[in-house]
Specification:
nine-stranded mixed sheet; 14% strand; alpha/beta
Amino acid sequence: MRLGLALGGGGARGLAHIHVLEALDELSLKPVRVTGSSIGAIIGAGYAAGMSAHDIKSYMLDCFTSPRIVIGRLWQTRPVSLQDFLADGGFRLGQLNARRVMDAFLPPDVPLTFEELRLPLGVMATDFYARAGCELETGELRSAVAASCAIPAVFRPVRRDGRLMVDGGIINPLPFDRLRGKADLIVAVDVNGGPLGDGTRMPTPVQAVIGSSQLTMQAIIDTKVRYSPPDLLLRPAVSPYGVLDFLKSREILDATAGLKEEAKRAIDQHMQGEGPLLVSLEPEGAGLVTTAASGAA
């Protein structure tokens, strides 16, 4: 059975993807194709490059051990000349160069081009002026991953192939539809999550912008799932963590560790002939679960 794997966007919440990769490794299964948006593109690139789930986990934990290490890597992304500074668009408050950040944080095992990967990979990005999503699958890899991760509030748009691209999650936050006809069993991992609270705490401006975009992305995912679900949808409980909470990497991995066994059980169930299946570890009653659960039932 050809297995296709779709890894969704969600920032630091996407560290939970690693547990699904661990499940596949322990089942001795390899996808015939991986598609990813945002953090799903980063982790998908590592996996498609031949890294094991264990190696990806170790690398991510090393990257985000302490603020000092993170700041040191971010320092490497600064423009080294006035020409580079102007090429980046000059002074832009709060917007990082996504391509340089990818160069600083991607594992060294990740090659420079798609063609050097061991598994086929599709990276979702959004063409800003064409107002459309696009799947990047050939040529330079790091600019594609950078484009997929370019959250507008955090990163400036990425130039690639004469186009300006931003976060792939804006149009396709969970690209399992890109696996249609290419896999017999489509497994999708939704780590988008959503804002949590009781209405008493006012979100910061950045939290409001990112949280609002998450609500939009969840609506896109739920609509896709309702009308044409993947064979298996895994939805770990990641909402307690913020999109930028990478310094809580170990805590996120520990809190979502149960996903590995759930994924193994669900994949085994599906191989025994069960239809579309939703495995949600989000708390009961969470609004972001309801639509998808009913659509995938």
